[in-house]
User: Fold ABC transporter ATP-binding protein from Sulfitobacter profundi.
Amino acid sequence: MAEIQLKNISKRWGSFVGVDNFDLTIADREFLVLLGPSGCGKTTTMRMIAGLEEATEGEIHIGDRMVNDLDPKDRDVAMVFQSYGLYPHLNVYENIRFPLKVRKADPATHDERVRKAAEMVELTDFLHRKPAELSGGQRQRVALARAIVRKPSVFLMDEPLSNLDAKLRVSTRAQIKNLSHELQVTTVYVTHDQIEAMTLADRVVVMKAGVVQQVGTPTEIYDNPANTFVASFIGSPAMNLLDGEILNGTFTGKNVTVSGLNAPNGPVILGFRAEDATVSETPAGEIAAPLYTIELLGDATMLTVRAGGQLVSIKAHKELRAQIGDPVAFNVPAAICHLFDHETGGRLNRP
Ligand SMILES: Nc1ncnc2c1ncn2[C@@H]1O[C@H](COP(=O)(O)OP(=O)(O)OP(=O)(O)O)[C@@H](O)[C@H]1O
Assistant:
């Protein structure tokens, strides 16, 4: 168990900046998720912690040691990759045991430790099989067992679920969450999937083009996104973001009007989430726009309307039915709106 301190770390290749001035303390036992689109620098950040990539600048501390000059094997971190990295000629038992052998752990303890790790990921019945005889989900569980068998100070996981099909992803995600609760080991987890980030993290770091955009709990990031990038990256569907102008407390965009805003006059980007808008039976005084598409989600109905050339998502109750092209009347209460600077996209105070 250990705290990780990343003190202004950067990674540059020539003039290209992969990670820019990343500065964060990850608490002992925290589950931290690095989230962002492809190429934003998540993996590079994690590889610097692991020692697979040298930081161009800054210091990395794990526990009470500065590890910049330590080899990966001396940092006491265990990694799980999306590609599993299992040894094909070894059976599950020997794959899980491998780190104990390499680290010369007391041989008398191996059997118990391997079986315990296998049990934690529900692989007890598969110990004799070779990786080729396992499903993708089972292989990923072998990789997890191999990481937990030697009780490292830190777990680093790079998109461990991305090779699994949707259903398996959900169940393995739950297993990782449960495992991490049980093990209480500081974990850094890389993903581009915002649902994984929201469901697993104690805190999420949202990155874009090498630069940290926001650090916060899933709720903080969802409820108070720091800018339009974070607002549109977190949540499904993405937050509705509309260009327009505020005049005397009323926002006017293309075909969307919201009144009662407590904000200065001028151009802004107005944001609201699909679940915060309400569909109205009585169209008077509200926004009306033609239905572009309707999706039945089971527990709700998602409407997408075309408001002034822009698509806007509204989550409605599950019984709602409508035809494409029908006018949909909806209401956007001022209290649930987010306002962003129209040039920088940075968050303005909530109205
Ligand atoms: N060895 C390298 N030399 C030059 N540029 C690199 C090198 N490794 C990575 N990069 C660049 O650094 C940036 C960050 O890469 P990184 O792998 O950290 O992104 P990522 O957020 O993990 O993306 P993905 O989700 O696609 O893995 C990318 O633009 C990548 O092309």
Summary: The chain has two domains: 4-229, 240-341.
